[in-house]
Structure formats: structure tokens, C-alpha cells
Amino acid sequence: MESYLPVRATLTAIDRRLADHLFTLVPAEPLAVQPGQFVELSLPGLGAFAVSSCAAAHPAAVRLCIRRAGRVTAALYELDEGAVLGLRGPFGNGFPLAAFADRDVLLLAGGLGMAPLMGLLETLLQQRSAYREITVLNGARDPASLLFRPELEALAAQGLIRAAFSVDFAGDEAAATLLAGCRVGLVAGLLGTVPLRPAQTTAAVCGPPAMYSCVLPQLEELGLAAAAIYATLERRMRCGVGHCCHCVTGGVFVCRSGPVFALDELRRLDGAI
Ligand SMILES: Cc1cc2nc3c(=O)[nH]c(=O)nc-3n(C[C@H](O)[C@H](O)[C@H](O)COP(=O)(O)OP(=O)(O)OC[C@H]3O[C@@H](n4cnc5c(N)ncnc54)[C@H](O)[C@@H]3O)c2cc1C
Ligand code: FES
Predict the structure, then answer these.
(1) Given this model, what pLDDT does residue 169 score?
(2) pTM
(3) Atom of ligand 1 nearest to the CA of 92
(4) What is d(CA 178, CA 182) in angstroms, rounded to the nearest whole number?
(5) pLDDT (mean) for 105-121
(6) Which of 37, 72, 91, 254 has the fewest CB neighbours in a 10 Å radius?
(7) What digits encode the pLDDT tens for the residues 19-48?
(8) Which CATH entry fits the domain spanning 2-91: 2.40.160.40, 1.10.1470.10, 1.20.1090.10, 2.40.30.10?
(9) Alpha carbon 21 to chain centroid, angstroms
(10) How far does residue 235's CA lie from ligand 1's centre (Å)?
């Protein structure tokens, strides 16, 4: 029952440059979140919500990219450095790193989906030679909303990855400079613009449900095996440990068996996609 108890965590940094802010927390006890796993972040007296890590696992610090969505996240946005919050977890299975080893890696993100994929990418880069070509396709609604673009461009400039960006809308005049280097259209449109070797590629996809319904079949049509396409399922999590049943989908606890599933597993879960 230990994981029901939150660990005290101090908010040490808030990066407010983008609409979705980045929060760094230092837990009072070591808490390493593997890529694709999630934690429950609680604001005392207000509530808690599930959030993935957007950095490689580090026991001394947890980095989260959080969108202001509703009551609890809005309250978080009002806090300053030094605030003390609660962290429970880590929960869930995370991405299976062995499935990416010695393979080309394709990371395909829509909007906030780039957050957990950034955690995965940082982890892969810690052992860069264990993976072949790494391609990141990152889409957002407008140029100013693209997460981690400078970081991805810097990695591409070093030859460590290939990166391509897309935006649904060109944005206003102020966004014109940011638009350079972005394709206008849905992120799925980027798939035709980069050379892929489907038979030797493992993909990780993260984004809104509407993106899954078009991107996952498209990856299969390109020749990727369903067992080599991983996606994360977002459900209303509460306990994170298989007790409250809030996350049950197709008869499985998404908080325990997921949130990362291969496409062939997802197809067996009624109502998953
Ligand atoms: C495994 C997992 C990982 C997540 N990772 C991140 C992350 O890295 N960054 C981030 O900003 N958010 C993430 N989320 C979503 C985050 O948990 C919700 O946005 C959060 O619960 C909102 O809390 P709130 O009290 O501010 O909003 P609420 O008032 O609870 O909700 C605001 C709106 O968002 C909807 N909503 C809330 N949670 C979900 C959900 N899980 N699925 C679908 N709709 C939802 C509500 O129906 C409502 O319309 C993740 C969720 C899960 C399950
Ligand atoms: S979140 Fe409670 S059972 Fe999954």
C-alpha cells in the first residue's frame, strides 16, 4: 500500500516560455520515473492528477510538462518555486527499451504527446550506439505550441537524430518566424517526408485519440509490424495501482498493464482506440 503515500516534493524550477509549462520537482526520497511511466502529482487540499515524465529517469529530480487543463492544473500554474507538493509513483509499465534496441526508432508526437516521448528520447540518447536511425516527428496546433523544438533541432544539428515539425495552423504574423522549417498540416503528413525502413523500425506514438485513429493504421500500411508500434493510452487515473477501476479498458487496468501498449495488444482491448 506504500504507493498510496505521496512523497513530499519541492518545486524547484518553472519554465514558462511556452503555454505548456515545464516543472522541475525535487522529491524528498529518490523517485525515478522511467519513460512512459507516470506519477500522480498532488496539490494539498485540492487534488491530484496523472502526468508522465518528460525527461530520462533521475532519482533526484522529476521533470514534467503540464498543460493547464482544469481545476488542479490551473492551481499549479499559480504556484511559485519553493512550493511543496506531493508525488506518488512511479506507476505503469513504461516503454519497453529492448523493443527499440538495434532498430531504427520513430517517435511520432502530437501536441503534449511530445512530453513522454522526450523522456524516451533522452533515455535512448544515454546509449546512442544501441539504436540505429532515430527520427522524431513532432506536430502541434501552431508554431508557438511545438514542445522541445530547440532541443530537438540541436540534437539534429549534432547528427544524433532526424527531426521534422508540423503545425495544424500557420498561426498569426508573430508566429511567422517560428513557422520556418515547419510543414503546415497534420503530423501524419510528415510520414511521407522522411526516409523510413519500416521492417527494421520500432515506433512510439503519443498524442490525442483522434491522431491515433489515423496514424496507427498509416504506420502499418507503411510496413511497420503492429507489434513494433507502441502507443500510450490516456485514461482518467486515480489510484494508479489497480484498486479504483477508473482506468479499466477492455478488461485491463491501464494504470498497471499500460499506459504503453503495442498496437496488436490495443486491438485486443475493447474500446481502447
Ligand atoms: C498516463 C497519463 C499521463 C499524462 N501525462 C500528462 C502530461 O505529461 N502532461 C499533462 O499536462 N497532462 C498529462 N495527462 C493528463 C492530465 O492527467 C490531465 O490533464 C489532468 O488530470 C487535468 O487535471 P485538472 O484537475 O487540471 O483538470 P480536470 O478538471 O480534471 O479536467 C480538465 C479537462 O480535461 C479532461 N481530462 C482530464 N484528464 C483526462 C484524461 N486522463 N483523459 C482525457 N481527458 C481528461 C477533463 O474531462 C476535462 O474536460 C496525463 C494523463 C494520463 C492518464
Ligand atoms: S487508476 Fe485506479 S485502477 Fe487504475
Answers:
(1) 83
(2) 0.95
(3) 1
(4) 8
(5) 97
(6) 72
(7) 999 999 999 999 999 999 999 999 999 999
(8) 2.40.30.10
(9) 14
(10) 8
